[in-house]
Amino acid sequence: MRAVPLAILATGSFAVGVIAASGSADKDAVVQFGEAWKQSDLDAMYAELSPDAQDKYDFDTFKAAYDDAAQTATVQGVEPGEARGPLDQDGEDVIALPVDVQTTAFGTVSGEIGMPVSDGKIDWRPDLVFPGLTEGAELKRQTQVAPRAPILAADRSPIAEGSVNSRTTNGAGGIIAGEVGEPQGLRAAQMQAEGFPDDALGGVTGLELAFDKTLAGTPGGKLIAKGPDGKKVLAQTKPTPGKPVRTTLDPDLQEATASALGDTYGGAAVLDARNGNVLALAGIAFSAPQPPGSTFKIITASASLEDGITKPEEEFPVVQSAIVGGREVSNAHDELCGGTLVQSFAQSCNSVFAPLGEKLGGKRLVDASEKFGFNSPPSLYNEDSLKLIKPLESTIPEDLTDDMAGISAIGQGEVLATPLEMASVAQTIANKGVRSPTSIVKDPALAGDYPDVTAVSPQVAAEVKDMMIEVVKSGTGSAASVPGVTVAGKTGTAELGTVSENSPVGAEEPELDVDAWFTSFAPADKPKVVVAVMVVKADGDGGTIAAPIAQQILQAAL
Known about the structure:
Layout: H1 3-38, H2 42-47, H3 51-56, H4 59-73, E1 75-80, E2 84-89, E3 92-103, E4 107-118, E5 121-122, E6 138-144, E7 151-152, E8 158-161, E9 168-169, H5 174-177, E10 180-181, H6 185-194, E11 202-203, H7 206-210, H8 212-216, E12 220-227, E13 230-237, E14 245-246, H9 251-261, E15 266-272, E16 278-283, H10 297-306, E17 315-319, E18 321-324, E19 327-330, E20 337-340, H11 341-346, H12 350-360, H13 362-371, H14 383-389, H15 402-408, H16 419-430, E21 434-435, H17 444-447, E22 453-454, H18 458-474, E23 488-496, E24 513-522, E25 529-535, H19 542-557
Parallel strand pairs: 7-14
Antiparallel strand pairs: 1-3, 2-3, 3-4, 4-5, 6-12, 7-8, 8-9, 10-11, 12-13, 15-16, 15-25, 17-20, 18-19, 21-22, 23-24, 24-25
Helix pairs in contact: 9-19, 10-12, 10-13, 10-18, 12-15
């Protein structure tokens, strides 16, 4: 008689167990779906769908639904809460999944999604992609763009101002400010993720591009569920106005630099000698690296003095050329050149500095160059801006061979530099051997975290400074003299072209293009300003073409 009620009890327990197990499997599927959603693992999410749902919606359709929702709502991340259920929702078994969706344009949107379940799987529908949607509803966005902020000079005067649709630039600084237009590449993708409408304009060049995110602010608007029964606002925010970007540019000096360069094809860079800040840029100051010619001898001299290979008073033979790396390297115009290291530097003797480069060797010359800033992006702004602008590096081959070190030591071969880089080289000497970042903005967060770099000792920097003074005082750079001011500088003349090794003996060599260079700082005893000038395809050498342009800029700065 006792066995009968026990059997009945056992049967009842089995039925409850089946219901509990089924509910647990449904809940597990939703929990796993939520965790996969958090990890943006769409494959794992799709695996939790029921066979019927997978038959109705293939993976590409499923993925497109979540991608579209993420783009519309500017989703940054999803944080699922603790699932509960099974629950009855309009006659349908669902597991309620709370989610917090972090968005760029609308903050955090929170809600609960009723996931239809059966047999341990999710009967998925497209309205489950975002909290607040009902069956048949779609996610839509109405966007409001914030006012664009101005770009300012160091004195807070506007360089570029006005709305993104009617931007105006003021003075010569407009060249650096850049332009607005239809975004491309990385910035276009960023703006889409930030919630800007597809037809929104943004920075496309210069500072407008480099700091577009700061200048443009954050869009606002409404996030809407649009369904058969009408519209429902899920979230609403106001746009955040852009913030002004204050540069380090001196507007008067910018005008003077642009005026001095004029229509000449080339570039000019002006730095604060004390901290490396950019005071003015004109032309192709950092966009088209060229062989720096003899301005590179500042680095060769610094490394040679630092390593004890030579000293300022060492005497060198007065000759027309020298043999380095198995080839003859001549002085300019095949002139006789030599004397002390100081005199050889002032007269820019290739016959002295090419052999010094050979003694240094390829690896040491590269190491020295990199301390002066070669083979790294210019430190104009932070890494986010560098990714957008991608400014070209000044370079020296990292695998430079010893037999090519002599050619590279005089700024030829495969060495390439910009006026900004050679201005930084001069600033390093002016700053007692310490290279400062060449920032173009005041805000430390936008400028980036770049350390000062000790390139040479203070003693060597002082010796090279004296050599640079002699260049202007009695050497090739006398055209850069400023009355009442001691100027330190270095001329450079680079030849560009290709000479074929297979040319017939006695064949006339092709005429080579000439780039004229000059880099400098003043006053030499207490440096305030650094100026570097490059003229492409010049009609003469650095001393006659580039030095006078630098002189005009120095005079305006001082």
